[in-house]
Amino acid sequence: MTGEWLTQAIQAVLVLACAPLLTGVTRKIRARLLRRRGASVIQPYRDLLKLIRKEAVVAENASWLFRVAPYVMFASTWVAAALVPTFATGLTFSAAADLIVIVALLGTARFLLALAGLDVGTSFGGIGSSREMMFASLAEPAMLMAVFTLSLFAGSTQLSSISTYMLGPDAGLSISIALALIALVIVAIGENARIPVDNPATHLELTMVHEAMILEYSGRHLAVIETAASVKLLLYLSLIACVFVPWGTAVSGAGLLAYTIGVVAYAAKLAVLGFLLVVFETAIAKMRVFRVPDFLGVALMLGLLGTMLLFVSRVSR
Amino acid sequence: MSALDTDIAHLLAGALVLVSFLLLYQDRILALLNFFALHACVLALSVAWQAYVQHAPHLFITAAIALLFKGVIIPVALYRIVVRLGIHRTIEYAVSPGPTMLFGIALVALSIVVMMPVTAAEGAFVREDLAFALSVVLLGFLMMVTRRNAVSQVIGFMSLENGLVLAATGARGMPLVVEISVGFSVLIAFIVVGIFLFRIRERFDSVSLEALDMSRGESS
Protein backbone atom coordinates (compact mmCIF):
# COMPACT_ATOMS: atom_id res chain seq x y z
CA MET A 1 0.00 0.00 0.00
CA THR A 2 2.76 2.43 0.97
CA GLY A 3 4.61 1.33 -2.15
CA GLU A 4 1.66 2.30 -4.29
CA TRP A 5 1.37 5.68 -2.61
CA LEU A 6 5.07 6.25 -3.06
CA THR A 7 4.95 5.31 -6.75
CA GLN A 8 1.96 7.57 -7.28
CA ALA A 9 3.66 10.49 -5.55
CA ILE A 10 6.93 10.03 -7.43
CA GLN A 11 5.01 9.74 -10.66
CA ALA A 12 3.05 12.95 -10.05
CA VAL A 13 6.22 14.87 -9.26
CA LEU A 14 8.09 13.26 -12.13
CA VAL A 15 5.61 14.29 -14.83
CA LEU A 16 5.61 17.87 -13.57
CA ALA A 17 9.40 18.04 -13.31
CA CYS A 18 10.08 16.41 -16.67
CA ALA A 19 7.49 18.23 -18.77
CA PRO A 20 9.50 21.44 -19.43
CA LEU A 21 12.58 19.31 -20.11
CA LEU A 22 10.68 17.41 -22.81
CA THR A 23 9.60 20.70 -24.37
CA GLY A 24 13.18 21.93 -24.23
CA VAL A 25 14.52 18.76 -25.83
CA THR A 26 11.98 18.85 -28.66
CA ARG A 27 12.83 22.51 -29.32
CA LYS A 28 16.52 21.71 -29.33
CA ILE A 29 16.14 18.79 -31.76
CA ARG A 30 13.94 20.90 -33.99
CA ALA A 31 16.52 23.67 -34.04
CA ARG A 32 19.29 21.20 -34.89
CA LEU A 33 17.21 19.74 -37.71
CA LEU A 34 16.76 23.24 -39.10
CA ARG A 35 20.54 23.72 -38.79
CA ARG A 36 20.23 26.28 -36.03
CA ARG A 37 22.04 25.91 -32.75
CA GLY A 38 18.92 26.34 -30.60
CA ALA A 39 18.51 27.27 -26.97
CA SER A 40 19.71 25.01 -24.17
CA VAL A 41 17.41 22.18 -23.18
CA ILE A 42 16.80 23.76 -19.78
CA GLN A 43 15.69 27.04 -21.33
CA PRO A 44 11.97 26.33 -20.60
CA TYR A 45 12.77 26.16 -16.85
CA ARG A 46 14.52 29.53 -17.05
CA ASP A 47 11.57 30.99 -18.97
CA LEU A 48 9.14 29.72 -16.35
CA LEU A 49 11.24 31.13 -13.50
CA LYS A 50 11.40 34.49 -15.22
CA LEU A 51 7.67 34.54 -15.82
CA ILE A 52 6.89 33.63 -12.21
CA ARG A 53 9.04 36.53 -10.94
CA LYS A 54 7.33 39.03 -13.21
CA GLU A 55 4.22 41.00 -12.36
CA ALA A 56 0.97 39.64 -13.77
CA VAL A 57 -0.79 42.28 -15.84
CA VAL A 58 -4.52 41.70 -16.01
CA ALA A 59 -6.89 43.57 -18.31
CA GLU A 60 -9.25 46.02 -16.58
CA ASN A 61 -12.43 44.30 -17.67
CA ALA A 62 -11.23 40.78 -16.84
CA SER A 63 -13.52 38.85 -14.54
CA TRP A 64 -12.58 36.37 -11.79
CA LEU A 65 -12.74 33.61 -14.40
CA PHE A 66 -9.71 35.05 -16.14
CA ARG A 67 -7.62 34.71 -12.96
CA VAL A 68 -8.94 31.31 -11.94
CA ALA A 69 -8.85 29.58 -15.33
CA PRO A 70 -5.06 29.02 -15.56
CA TYR A 71 -4.90 27.30 -12.17
CA VAL A 72 -7.89 25.03 -12.75
CA MET A 73 -6.60 24.19 -16.19
CA PHE A 74 -3.17 23.39 -14.83
CA ALA A 75 -4.63 21.29 -12.01
CA SER A 76 -6.82 19.16 -14.26
CA THR A 77 -4.02 18.60 -16.79
CA TRP A 78 -1.62 17.64 -14.03
CA VAL A 79 -4.08 15.20 -12.45
CA ALA A 80 -4.70 13.65 -15.88
CA ALA A 81 -0.95 13.28 -16.45
CA ALA A 82 -0.42 11.77 -13.01
CA LEU A 83 -3.03 9.11 -13.77
CA VAL A 84 -1.14 7.72 -16.77
CA PRO A 85 1.26 4.96 -15.70
CA THR A 86 4.67 6.15 -16.82
CA PHE A 87 7.39 3.93 -15.38
CA ALA A 88 5.30 1.59 -13.22
CA THR A 89 1.76 0.26 -13.20
CA GLY A 90 -0.26 -0.33 -10.06
CA LEU A 91 -0.64 3.26 -8.88
CA THR A 92 -2.89 4.22 -5.99
CA PHE A 93 -5.43 5.81 -8.28
CA SER A 94 -5.36 2.94 -10.78
CA ALA A 95 -9.05 2.34 -10.24
CA ALA A 96 -9.78 5.94 -11.18
CA ALA A 97 -7.22 6.05 -13.98
CA ASP A 98 -9.84 5.50 -16.58
CA LEU A 99 -9.15 6.63 -20.13
CA ILE A 100 -12.54 8.34 -20.22
CA VAL A 101 -11.67 10.26 -17.04
CA ILE A 102 -8.50 11.50 -18.71
CA VAL A 103 -10.44 12.65 -21.79
CA ALA A 104 -12.92 14.44 -19.50
CA LEU A 105 -10.15 16.16 -17.51
CA LEU A 106 -8.52 17.39 -20.70
CA GLY A 107 -11.93 18.53 -21.94
CA THR A 108 -12.41 20.57 -18.75
CA ALA A 109 -9.04 22.23 -19.23
CA ARG A 110 -9.87 23.10 -22.81
CA PHE A 111 -13.29 24.46 -21.89
CA LEU A 112 -11.80 26.79 -19.28
CA LEU A 113 -9.07 28.00 -21.61
CA ALA A 114 -11.64 28.78 -24.32
CA LEU A 115 -13.79 30.67 -21.79
CA ALA A 116 -10.75 32.62 -20.60
CA GLY A 117 -9.95 33.49 -24.21
CA LEU A 118 -13.41 34.96 -24.60
CA ASP A 119 -13.44 36.65 -21.21
CA VAL A 120 -11.46 39.81 -21.93
CA GLY A 121 -13.36 40.46 -25.12
CA THR A 122 -10.47 41.00 -27.54
CA SER A 123 -10.91 39.75 -31.05
CA PHE A 124 -7.84 37.48 -30.93
CA GLY A 125 -9.10 35.62 -27.89
CA GLY A 126 -12.43 35.12 -29.59
CA ILE A 127 -10.90 33.82 -32.80
CA GLY A 128 -8.63 31.46 -30.87
CA SER A 129 -11.50 30.11 -28.78
CA SER A 130 -13.77 29.55 -31.74
CA ARG A 131 -11.06 27.73 -33.66
CA GLU A 132 -10.13 25.64 -30.64
CA MET A 133 -13.75 24.61 -30.24
CA MET A 134 -14.01 23.77 -33.95
CA PHE A 135 -11.01 21.45 -33.68
CA ALA A 136 -12.17 20.03 -30.36
CA SER A 137 -15.54 19.02 -31.80
CA LEU A 138 -13.65 16.55 -34.02
CA ALA A 139 -10.61 15.75 -31.87
CA GLU A 140 -12.58 14.67 -28.81
CA PRO A 141 -14.84 12.15 -30.59
CA ALA A 142 -11.75 10.84 -32.41
CA MET A 143 -9.93 10.37 -29.10
CA LEU A 144 -12.98 8.65 -27.63
CA MET A 145 -13.26 6.29 -30.61
CA ALA A 146 -9.59 5.34 -30.23
CA VAL A 147 -10.24 4.82 -26.50
CA PHE A 148 -13.24 2.61 -27.25
CA THR A 149 -11.18 0.52 -29.68
CA LEU A 150 -8.50 0.01 -27.04
CA SER A 151 -11.02 -0.73 -24.30
CA LEU A 152 -12.94 -3.25 -26.41
CA PHE A 153 -9.67 -4.90 -27.36
CA ALA A 154 -8.30 -5.14 -23.83
CA GLY A 155 -11.66 -5.55 -22.09
CA SER A 156 -11.11 -2.62 -19.74
CA THR A 157 -10.95 1.16 -19.76
CA GLN A 158 -8.36 1.28 -17.00
CA LEU A 159 -4.94 2.23 -18.22
CA SER A 160 -3.05 -0.17 -15.97
CA SER A 161 -5.16 -3.11 -17.13
CA ILE A 162 -4.79 -2.14 -20.79
CA SER A 163 -1.04 -1.82 -20.37
CA THR A 164 -0.83 -5.23 -18.65
CA TYR A 165 -3.04 -6.81 -21.33
CA MET A 166 -0.80 -5.44 -24.06
CA LEU A 167 2.20 -7.03 -22.37
CA GLY A 168 0.42 -10.36 -22.06
CA PRO A 169 0.31 -13.20 -24.60
CA ASP A 170 -3.31 -12.58 -25.69
CA ALA A 171 -2.66 -9.27 -27.36
CA GLY A 172 -1.04 -10.30 -30.64
CA LEU A 173 -1.02 -8.08 -33.68
CA SER A 174 -4.19 -6.39 -34.70
CA ILE A 175 -5.10 -3.95 -37.41
CA SER A 176 -7.54 -2.24 -35.02
CA ILE A 177 -4.73 -1.40 -32.63
CA ALA A 178 -2.67 0.01 -35.49
CA LEU A 179 -5.61 2.19 -36.52
CA ALA A 180 -6.15 3.33 -32.93
CA LEU A 181 -2.46 4.24 -32.71
CA ILE A 182 -2.60 6.38 -35.87
CA ALA A 183 -5.81 8.04 -34.66
CA LEU A 184 -4.26 8.77 -31.27
CA VAL A 185 -1.12 10.21 -32.88
CA ILE A 186 -3.21 12.54 -35.06
CA VAL A 187 -5.25 13.64 -32.05
CA ALA A 188 -2.05 14.19 -30.07
CA ILE A 189 -0.63 16.40 -32.83
CA GLY A 190 -3.86 18.37 -33.04
CA GLU A 191 -4.37 18.75 -29.31
CA ASN A 192 -0.84 19.88 -28.56
CA ALA A 193 -0.91 22.60 -31.20
CA ARG A 194 1.97 21.03 -33.12
CA ILE A 195 2.86 21.97 -36.64
CA PRO A 196 0.41 20.80 -39.26
CA VAL A 197 -2.42 22.09 -37.08
CA ASP A 198 -0.99 25.04 -35.22
CA ASN A 199 2.49 26.47 -34.87
CA PRO A 200 3.64 26.76 -31.25
CA ALA A 201 6.35 29.25 -32.19
CA THR A 202 4.36 31.76 -34.20
CA HIS A 203 2.55 34.93 -33.37
CA LEU A 204 1.11 35.42 -36.83
CA GLU A 205 -2.53 36.41 -36.48
CA LEU A 206 -3.90 34.34 -39.31
CA THR A 207 -2.60 31.01 -38.11
CA MET A 208 -2.48 30.96 -34.36
CA VAL A 209 -4.97 29.05 -32.27
CA HIS A 210 -3.51 28.23 -28.88
CA GLU A 211 -1.37 31.38 -28.74
CA ALA A 212 -4.38 33.53 -29.61
CA MET A 213 -6.29 32.37 -26.56
CA ILE A 214 -3.47 33.07 -24.13
CA LEU A 215 -2.39 36.35 -25.67
CA GLU A 216 -3.74 38.41 -22.75
CA TYR A 217 -1.95 36.42 -20.09
CA SER A 218 1.33 37.43 -18.49
CA GLY A 219 3.47 36.76 -15.44
CA ARG A 220 2.62 33.81 -13.22
CA HIS A 221 -0.63 33.10 -15.08
CA LEU A 222 1.32 32.61 -18.31
CA ALA A 223 3.88 30.46 -16.50
CA VAL A 224 1.12 28.18 -15.24
CA ILE A 225 -0.44 27.93 -18.70
CA GLU A 226 2.90 27.17 -20.35
CA THR A 227 3.59 24.45 -17.79
CA ALA A 228 0.17 22.96 -18.42
CA ALA A 229 0.88 22.89 -22.17
CA SER A 230 4.17 21.04 -21.57
CA VAL A 231 2.48 18.60 -19.20
CA LYS A 232 -0.17 17.95 -21.83
CA LEU A 233 2.46 17.05 -24.43
CA LEU A 234 4.12 14.75 -21.91
CA LEU A 235 0.74 13.21 -21.11
CA TYR A 236 -0.01 12.31 -24.72
CA LEU A 237 3.44 10.84 -25.29
CA SER A 238 3.21 8.85 -22.03
CA LEU A 239 -0.24 7.63 -23.00
CA ILE A 240 1.03 6.36 -26.36
CA ALA A 241 4.10 4.82 -24.71
CA CYS A 242 2.05 3.21 -21.94
CA VAL A 243 -0.49 1.61 -24.26
CA PHE A 244 1.42 0.78 -27.43
CA VAL A 245 4.99 0.19 -26.21
CA PRO A 246 4.46 -1.04 -22.64
CA TRP A 247 7.70 -3.02 -22.49
CA GLY A 248 9.98 -2.25 -19.58
CA THR A 249 7.26 -0.82 -17.35
CA ALA A 250 7.62 -2.08 -13.79
CA VAL A 251 4.65 -3.98 -12.39
CA SER A 252 3.48 -3.18 -8.88
CA GLY A 253 5.44 -4.86 -6.10
CA ALA A 254 8.52 -5.48 -8.22
CA GLY A 255 12.00 -4.88 -6.84
CA LEU A 256 14.04 -1.72 -6.98
CA LEU A 257 15.87 -2.93 -10.08
CA ALA A 258 12.59 -3.28 -12.02
CA TYR A 259 11.67 0.28 -11.07
CA THR A 260 15.06 1.56 -12.21
CA ILE A 261 14.64 -0.26 -15.53
CA GLY A 262 11.14 1.23 -15.73
CA VAL A 263 12.44 4.77 -15.33
CA VAL A 264 15.21 4.27 -17.89
CA ALA A 265 12.81 2.65 -20.37
CA TYR A 266 10.33 5.49 -19.88
CA ALA A 267 13.00 8.11 -20.55
CA ALA A 268 14.10 6.22 -23.67
CA LYS A 269 10.53 5.93 -24.96
CA LEU A 270 9.89 9.63 -24.40
CA ALA A 271 13.11 10.54 -26.19
CA VAL A 272 12.27 8.35 -29.20
CA LEU A 273 8.66 9.57 -29.42
CA GLY A 274 9.70 13.19 -29.04
CA PHE A 275 12.32 12.76 -31.74
CA LEU A 276 9.77 11.20 -34.12
CA LEU A 277 7.34 14.02 -33.40
CA VAL A 278 9.94 16.65 -34.24
CA VAL A 279 11.04 14.86 -37.43
CA PHE A 280 7.41 14.73 -38.55
CA GLU A 281 7.00 18.40 -37.70
CA THR A 282 10.01 19.53 -39.68
CA ALA A 283 9.04 17.40 -42.66
CA ILE A 284 5.55 18.79 -43.06
CA ALA A 285 4.10 22.20 -43.79
CA LYS A 286 1.48 23.96 -41.73
CA MET A 287 -2.08 23.35 -42.90
CA ARG A 288 -4.69 25.93 -43.65
CA VAL A 289 -7.03 26.28 -40.70
CA PHE A 290 -9.96 25.03 -42.73
CA ARG A 291 -8.09 21.88 -43.77
CA VAL A 292 -7.62 20.90 -40.12
CA PRO A 293 -11.14 19.45 -39.72
CA ASP A 294 -10.33 17.08 -42.62
CA PHE A 295 -7.12 16.04 -40.87
CA LEU A 296 -8.85 15.42 -37.57
CA GLY A 297 -11.78 13.83 -39.40
CA VAL A 298 -9.33 11.21 -40.62
CA ALA A 299 -8.53 10.39 -36.99
CA LEU A 300 -12.22 10.05 -36.22
CA MET A 301 -12.67 7.81 -39.25
CA LEU A 302 -9.72 5.62 -38.31
CA GLY A 303 -11.07 5.21 -34.78
CA LEU A 304 -14.46 4.21 -36.18
CA LEU A 305 -12.87 1.80 -38.65
CA GLY A 306 -10.73 0.29 -35.89
CA THR A 307 -13.78 -0.38 -33.75
CA MET A 308 -15.58 -1.94 -36.69
CA LEU A 309 -12.71 -4.18 -37.76
CA LEU A 310 -12.38 -5.28 -34.16
CA PHE A 311 -15.71 -7.04 -34.49
CA VAL A 312 -14.43 -8.98 -37.50
CA SER A 313 -11.41 -10.21 -35.58
CA ARG A 314 -13.42 -10.73 -32.40
CA VAL A 315 -15.79 -13.12 -34.21
CA SER A 316 -12.89 -15.09 -35.58
CA ARG A 317 -10.88 -15.40 -32.40
CA MET B 1 -1.72 -21.99 -38.96
CA SER B 2 -0.58 -20.25 -35.80
CA ALA B 3 -2.30 -17.23 -34.27
CA LEU B 4 0.56 -14.96 -35.24
CA ASP B 5 0.34 -15.99 -38.91
CA THR B 6 -3.37 -15.18 -38.93
CA ASP B 7 -2.71 -11.88 -37.18
CA ILE B 8 -0.14 -10.82 -39.75
CA ALA B 9 -2.42 -11.80 -42.65
CA HIS B 10 -5.21 -9.86 -40.96
CA LEU B 11 -2.93 -6.86 -40.48
CA LEU B 12 -1.86 -6.81 -44.13
CA ALA B 13 -5.41 -7.19 -45.45
CA GLY B 14 -6.56 -4.45 -43.09
CA ALA B 15 -3.69 -2.26 -44.26
CA LEU B 16 -4.97 -2.67 -47.82
CA VAL B 17 -8.38 -1.36 -46.73
CA LEU B 18 -6.62 1.53 -45.00
CA VAL B 19 -4.65 2.42 -48.14
CA SER B 20 -7.93 2.34 -50.09
CA PHE B 21 -9.20 5.01 -47.71
CA LEU B 22 -6.01 7.01 -48.22
CA LEU B 23 -6.65 6.83 -51.99
CA LEU B 24 -10.13 8.26 -51.41
CA TYR B 25 -8.65 11.07 -49.31
CA GLN B 26 -6.09 12.26 -51.87
CA ASP B 27 -7.10 15.10 -54.12
CA ARG B 28 -3.84 15.68 -56.00
CA ILE B 29 -3.21 13.41 -58.95
CA LEU B 30 0.47 12.73 -58.32
CA ALA B 31 -0.15 11.88 -54.66
CA LEU B 32 -2.92 9.60 -55.87
CA LEU B 33 -0.45 7.78 -58.12
CA ASN B 34 2.01 7.34 -55.25
CA PHE B 35 -0.65 5.92 -53.01
CA PHE B 36 -1.80 3.61 -55.79
CA ALA B 37 1.73 2.23 -56.01
CA LEU B 38 1.65 1.77 -52.23
CA HIS B 39 -1.69 -0.03 -52.57
CA ALA B 40 -0.13 -2.49 -55.03
CA CYS B 41 2.91 -3.00 -52.78
CA VAL B 42 0.72 -3.77 -49.76
CA LEU B 43 -1.25 -6.18 -51.93
CA ALA B 44 1.96 -7.88 -53.05
CA LEU B 45 3.09 -8.21 -49.42
CA SER B 46 -0.25 -9.63 -48.40
CA VAL B 47 -0.29 -12.15 -51.26
CA ALA B 48 3.32 -13.16 -50.56
CA TRP B 49 2.47 -13.73 -46.91
CA GLN B 50 -0.47 -15.92 -47.94
CA ALA B 51 1.83 -17.87 -50.25
CA TYR B 52 4.24 -18.44 -47.40
CA VAL B 53 1.54 -19.42 -44.94
CA GLN B 54 -0.44 -21.65 -47.30
CA HIS B 55 2.72 -23.21 -48.80
CA ALA B 56 1.46 -22.27 -52.25
CA PRO B 57 4.46 -21.27 -54.37
CA HIS B 58 2.37 -20.12 -57.32
CA LEU B 59 1.00 -17.30 -55.19
CA PHE B 60 4.52 -15.86 -55.11
CA ILE B 61 4.17 -15.39 -58.87
CA THR B 62 0.91 -13.53 -58.29
CA ALA B 63 2.68 -11.33 -55.75
CA ALA B 64 5.50 -10.67 -58.22
CA ILE B 65 2.99 -9.78 -60.94
CA ALA B 66 1.22 -7.37 -58.57
CA LEU B 67 4.48 -5.75 -57.53
CA LEU B 68 5.91 -5.44 -61.04
CA PHE B 69 2.83 -4.44 -63.05
CA LYS B 70 0.73 -2.54 -60.57
CA GLY B 71 3.46 -1.37 -58.26
CA VAL B 72 5.91 -0.13 -60.88
CA ILE B 73 4.88 -0.25 -64.55
CA ILE B 74 1.34 1.13 -64.36
CA PRO B 75 2.11 3.98 -61.90
CA VAL B 76 5.13 5.04 -63.97
CA ALA B 77 3.14 4.90 -67.20
CA LEU B 78 0.25 6.81 -65.62
CA TYR B 79 2.73 9.37 -64.32
CA ARG B 80 4.02 9.93 -67.84
CA ILE B 81 0.49 10.22 -69.21
CA VAL B 82 -0.44 12.71 -66.50
CA VAL B 83 2.63 14.82 -67.20
CA ARG B 84 2.04 14.70 -70.97
CA LEU B 85 -1.58 15.70 -70.52
CA GLY B 86 -0.36 18.56 -68.35
CA ILE B 87 -2.78 17.81 -65.52
CA HIS B 88 -0.21 16.97 -62.83
CA ARG B 89 -1.08 20.04 -60.81
CA THR B 90 -4.81 19.55 -60.92
CA ILE B 91 -6.77 19.34 -57.70
CA GLU B 92 -10.12 17.69 -57.86
CA TYR B 93 -13.00 18.70 -55.70
CA ALA B 94 -15.74 16.42 -56.87
CA VAL B 95 -17.09 15.41 -53.46
CA SER B 96 -15.30 16.67 -50.36
CA PRO B 97 -13.26 14.07 -48.45
CA GLY B 98 -15.39 14.10 -45.30
CA PRO B 99 -18.66 12.71 -46.71
CA THR B 100 -16.73 10.34 -49.01
CA MET B 101 -14.90 8.90 -46.01
CA LEU B 102 -18.13 8.43 -44.08
CA PHE B 103 -19.70 6.74 -47.07
CA GLY B 104 -16.62 4.51 -47.35
CA ILE B 105 -17.00 3.50 -43.69
CA ALA B 106 -20.62 2.61 -44.36
CA LEU B 107 -19.45 0.43 -47.27
CA VAL B 108 -16.93 -1.37 -45.03
CA ALA B 109 -19.70 -2.00 -42.50
CA LEU B 110 -21.90 -3.28 -45.31
CA SER B 111 -19.29 -5.70 -46.56
CA ILE B 112 -18.70 -7.03 -43.04
CA VAL B 113 -22.42 -7.47 -42.47
CA VAL B 114 -22.83 -9.22 -45.83
CA MET B 115 -19.79 -11.46 -45.63
CA MET B 116 -20.07 -12.67 -42.04
CA PRO B 117 -23.27 -14.73 -42.40
CA VAL B 118 -22.54 -15.91 -45.96
CA THR B 119 -19.20 -17.45 -45.05
CA ALA B 120 -20.22 -18.72 -41.62
CA ALA B 121 -19.17 -22.26 -42.46
CA GLU B 122 -15.68 -21.26 -43.54
CA GLY B 123 -12.65 -20.79 -41.32
CA ALA B 124 -12.01 -17.49 -39.58
CA PHE B 125 -9.18 -16.71 -41.89
CA VAL B 126 -11.16 -16.93 -45.14
CA ARG B 127 -14.00 -14.97 -43.62
CA GLU B 128 -11.90 -11.98 -42.66
CA ASP B 129 -10.09 -12.03 -45.92
CA LEU B 130 -13.28 -12.01 -47.95
CA ALA B 131 -14.79 -9.23 -45.85
CA PHE B 132 -11.69 -7.08 -46.38
CA ALA B 133 -11.55 -7.92 -50.09
CA LEU B 134 -15.17 -6.94 -50.59
CA SER B 135 -14.49 -3.64 -48.78
CA VAL B 136 -11.56 -2.90 -51.09
CA VAL B 137 -13.73 -3.66 -54.15
CA LEU B 138 -16.56 -1.45 -52.90
CA LEU B 139 -14.13 1.36 -52.05
CA GLY B 140 -12.74 1.09 -55.59
CA PHE B 141 -16.28 1.49 -56.93
CA LEU B 142 -16.81 4.46 -54.63
CA MET B 143 -13.68 6.06 -55.98
CA MET B 144 -14.91 5.61 -59.55
CA VAL B 145 -18.27 7.12 -58.62
CA THR B 146 -16.95 10.18 -56.77
CA ARG B 147 -14.15 11.23 -59.13
CA ARG B 148 -14.61 13.18 -62.33
CA ASN B 149 -11.11 12.93 -63.69
CA ALA B 150 -10.55 9.99 -66.04
CA VAL B 151 -7.11 9.22 -64.55
CA SER B 152 -8.54 8.92 -61.04
CA GLN B 153 -11.24 6.66 -62.39
CA VAL B 154 -8.58 4.40 -63.86
CA ILE B 155 -6.91 4.26 -60.46
CA GLY B 156 -10.25 3.45 -58.85
CA PHE B 157 -10.67 0.60 -61.31
CA MET B 158 -7.18 -0.75 -60.65
CA SER B 159 -7.63 -0.63 -56.87
CA LEU B 160 -10.90 -2.51 -57.32
CA GLU B 161 -9.00 -5.19 -59.21
CA ASN B 162 -6.49 -5.37 -56.33
CA GLY B 163 -9.44 -6.24 -54.09
CA LEU B 164 -10.35 -9.09 -56.44
CA VAL B 165 -6.83 -10.48 -56.25
CA LEU B 166 -6.97 -10.32 -52.45
CA ALA B 167 -10.23 -12.28 -52.47
CA ALA B 168 -8.74 -14.83 -54.87
CA THR B 169 -5.68 -15.48 -52.73
CA GLY B 170 -7.69 -15.84 -49.53
CA ALA B 171 -10.00 -18.46 -51.01
CA ARG B 172 -7.63 -21.29 -51.83
CA GLY B 173 -7.46 -22.98 -55.17
CA MET B 174 -7.53 -20.24 -57.75
CA PRO B 175 -5.53 -21.60 -60.70
CA LEU B 176 -2.42 -19.72 -61.73
CA VAL B 177 -3.60 -19.48 -65.35
CA VAL B 178 -6.63 -17.47 -64.27
CA GLU B 179 -4.50 -15.09 -62.25
CA ILE B 180 -2.01 -14.50 -65.02
CA SER B 181 -4.80 -13.88 -67.49
CA VAL B 182 -6.47 -11.48 -65.06
CA GLY B 183 -3.16 -9.67 -64.68
CA PHE B 184 -2.75 -9.35 -68.42
CA SER B 185 -6.33 -8.31 -69.03
CA VAL B 186 -5.85 -5.50 -66.54
CA LEU B 187 -2.73 -4.43 -68.38
CA ILE B 188 -4.59 -4.47 -71.69
CA ALA B 189 -7.48 -2.56 -70.12
CA PHE B 190 -4.92 -0.05 -68.93
CA ILE B 191 -3.46 0.36 -72.43
CA VAL B 192 -6.92 0.80 -73.92
CA VAL B 193 -7.78 3.36 -71.24
CA GLY B 194 -4.51 5.17 -71.91
CA ILE B 195 -5.32 5.47 -75.59
CA PHE B 196 -8.83 6.62 -74.75
CA LEU B 197 -7.49 9.29 -72.42
CA PHE B 198 -5.65 10.90 -75.30
CA ARG B 199 -8.65 10.51 -77.61
CA ILE B 200 -10.90 12.16 -75.01
CA ARG B 201 -8.49 15.01 -74.60
CA GLU B 202 -8.13 15.53 -78.35
CA ARG B 203 -11.87 15.71 -78.71
CA PHE B 204 -12.85 17.76 -75.65
CA ASP B 205 -9.59 19.50 -74.61
CA SER B 206 -9.99 18.04 -71.13
CA VAL B 207 -10.04 14.72 -69.33
CA SER B 208 -12.79 15.79 -66.99
CA LEU B 209 -15.75 13.55 -67.62
CA GLU B 210 -18.19 16.43 -67.37
CA ALA B 211 -17.25 17.26 -70.93
CA LEU B 212 -18.71 13.96 -72.04
CA ASP B 213 -22.14 14.86 -70.72
CA MET B 214 -22.49 17.39 -73.48
CA SER B 215 -21.99 14.86 -76.24
CA ARG B 216 -24.55 12.58 -74.64
CA GLY B 217 -27.03 15.43 -74.76
CA GLU B 218 -27.28 15.62 -70.96
CA SER B 219 -25.78 19.02 -70.38
CA SER B 220 -27.93 21.58 -68.71
Describe the protein's architecture and organization.
The complex is a heterodimer of chains A (317) and B (220). Chain A is an all-alpha fold and 317 residues long. Chain A has one domain (2-316). In chain A, 71% of the residues lie in helices and 0% in strands. Chain A is built from eleven helices and no strands. Chain A has helices at residues 2-33, 43-53, 64-83, 99-119, 123-154, 159-167, 175-191, 210-213, 219-244, 256-283, 292-316. In chain A, helix 5 packs antiparallel against helix 7. The model of chain A has no long low-confidence stretch (mean pLDDT 87). Chain B has one domain. Helices cover 81% and strands 0% of the residues of chain B. Chain B has eight helices and no strands. In chain B, helix 1 (3-25) packs antiparallel against helix 2. Chain B is globular. The model of chain B has no long low-confidence stretch (mean pLDDT 81). Classes of the chains: A mainly alpha (317), B mainly alpha (220). The A-B interface holds A 172-176, 178-179, 293-294, 297-298, 301-302, 304-305, 308-309, 311-313, 315-317 and B 3-4, 6-8, 10-11, 13-15, 17-18, 21, 25, 96-98, 101-102, 105, 108-109, 112, 116, 124-125, 127-128, 131-132.
